[in-house]
Amino acid sequence: MTDPTVDPALRSWVPVDRDSDFPIQNLPFGVFSSAGRAPRVGVGIGGEIVDVSVLSDAGVFDDASVPAGLFSAATLNPFLELGKSAWDSVRRELSSLLADTARGPSLPPEAFLVPMADAQMHLPVDVGDYVDFYSSLEHATNVGRLFRPDEPPLLPNWRHLPVGYHGRSSSIVVDGTPIVRPSGQRKPPDGDPVFGPTRRLDIELEVGFITGNGGALGVPISVDDAEDHIFGLVLVNDWSARDIQAWEYRPLGPFLGKSFATSISPWVVPLQALAPYRVTAPTQDPPVLPYLTIEPNRGIDMNLTVDLNGTTITTTNFRHMYWTMAQQLAHVTANGANVRAGDLFASGTVSGPEATALGSLLEMTRNGVEPIRLDDGSNRTFLEDGDRITLRGWCTSDTAPRIGFGSCRGVVAPAGAGPTSS
Prior knowledge:
Elements: E1 29-33, E2 40-45, E3 48-51, H1 52-57, H2 77-80, H3 84-98, E4 113-115, E5 120-122, E6 130-133, H4 137-147, E7 164-166, E8 172-174, E9 179-180, E10 183-186, E11 194-197, E12 201-202, E13 205-211, E14 230-237, E15 240-241, H5 242-248, H6 256-259, E16 262-264, E17 269-270, E18 278-280, E19 298-300, E20 303-308, E21 311-317, H7 325-332, E22 344-346, H8 361-364, E23 372-373, E24 379-380, E25 388-395, E26 403-413
């Protein structure tokens, strides 16, 4: 049966601009504070935030078996722990409540609607574990050609499993948090290692998914069931210090060059809202092992852009990803590793086949050899202090409303600028 919450004909009594990221078919979840009140759960629609805690206290979600006070929490984690049945029930209740045919609750709209302009957004989840993948064929090929020009660009395992690493969850920050230029060891071409601020600060355009509970330790999640454990998606900027990374990553992989900061967007777009934009993923050759085989293997048709100081420096699409979310989650748990509510799994850099569709400065500038020119006349190879990066993502078509993610922004602060806060 067609999901009524994504019916393209559905309209809300809350005003929603035609080009808004947040129509009634989206209903992304986040955590916000306003008017001196503590952070709590909200849902975006148009230019408003639905204060879900107020609706919950009024009994709107009683039929969804939501415990009292759950939406007054400062993270989405307690809600994510309830699982897919509760997620779907709450979404249906909200969709029904906000539809233009709704009677509405016994509350005036001003009691539970807060203008986005009057609110501060917070990190939506308390991330317990964070995994970053390397799942774009184009990105992996580009990087391989840069660093191994005399060898095949892809390492032998790449087409057989979703390559990834476990990152540092404590340095995940929300949209708008300043990014302090990190320091670490760098190895000059003709000299001994030195310690100091990175000279090659980069971005990585990524999309991440956030999970609910994944079962007990020792019990893998099957590829066919994987999406039942995925609540929603966020934009991710996995900031990278390329010179620090280049010196330290062999033989164990990313460390200080990655762990200093990862930015995510504040709104978590439910996977259910993206149903009209599911597409067939790229063909995998050779065929993958049975535990990673799923039919159909589905990606998402999502437009992605990166702006640097107001200049759009890349335009790409998430549909190009070789390894899909279901395969990534199945692989992570194949050895029995458990998944918890609020865990974050990032796609890895999203690059497309065109020269204008590259998801990192490393690729755009060929590792600093070919500077890119910005609209203000300046050139960049890697990021300078004061640079502003904005990631955006949205889905659109002729037959379904635009579903957007808002922004994932960060400005580079000088080394030693002090602690950041989200």
